[in-house]
Amino acid sequence: MRSSFRALLGGLVALLPVLAVPLGAPVAQAGEDSDRSIIGGGPVTAERYPWTVAVASQSRFGSARSGQFCGGVLVGPTTVVSAAHCFGQAALGGNWSDVHDLRIIFGRTDLSGTSGRETDVSNVWVNPGYDPVTNSGDVAVVTLGESLPAASTIRMAGADDTQDYRAGTAAEVYGWGDTTGYASYSTVLRAAGLTVLADETCERAYPGNGDGKYNRQDMVCAGDPAGGHDACQGDSGGPLVAGGKLVGLVSWGAGCADPAHPGVYTRMSAVAGLVAAHSS
Questions:
Q1: Residue pLDDT, tens place only, 71-83
Q2: Residue 138 known to be catalytic
Q3: Which of 31, 110, 113, 171 is deepest in the core (most CB within 10 A)?
Q4: pTM for the full model?
């Protein structure tokens, strides 16, 4: 699993490039490189992509980078989708409701600043079907304590949006995560261009050995066939966008930006019904 949660990090940092782990929370670094995030990506602004939000807790993860530990996506004025593993014991050390300052940060490009809005969380539904061994069903629905602008939301891909999942489709992933695979984080939002890959490609990369098992029913595979572009630790729950729609949530993978091990995302068309059923 691709995790860098502080509680688990310790001596694992040196092993991260070879482990298949959830793309979880970063460790605050002194002198962070503010020029990079998302491996191989470029800077973008939260104003242009307002549906990309940060999930944060300063009491759990410190004040650096506003306490960000995962990404999320605004799909309704009071609804954010993210990864189930972002709200588990390994990430939060207990139940989400015990984290008194759990926040969704909206409209903040640079996490070292104070722009945008920090919104309270009134409820988190974590998919009870999430399997932490296979990473299947990796989705959570966060209900906000106040409404955000409806114009800032993004539409989720549904069962009819099959064209957005075709191999070769251009996509982009967004986040504030690790820039190198070695716990080096940026404060600024970044994006990287990827390609949706054939399910067969990910089935070969993740056949069910120590690197994890790819399930085409509720996962989608995206990456750079040449390597060098990918999501990484700290990007979990963030958006994979194709055709102007949310097609995936950053979930897991082996290493970062390795052409032989592309990133694996929760397939939104498979979980959109669950999200709708648990949205306010």
A1: 999 999 999 999 9
A2: yes
A3: 171
A4: 0.88
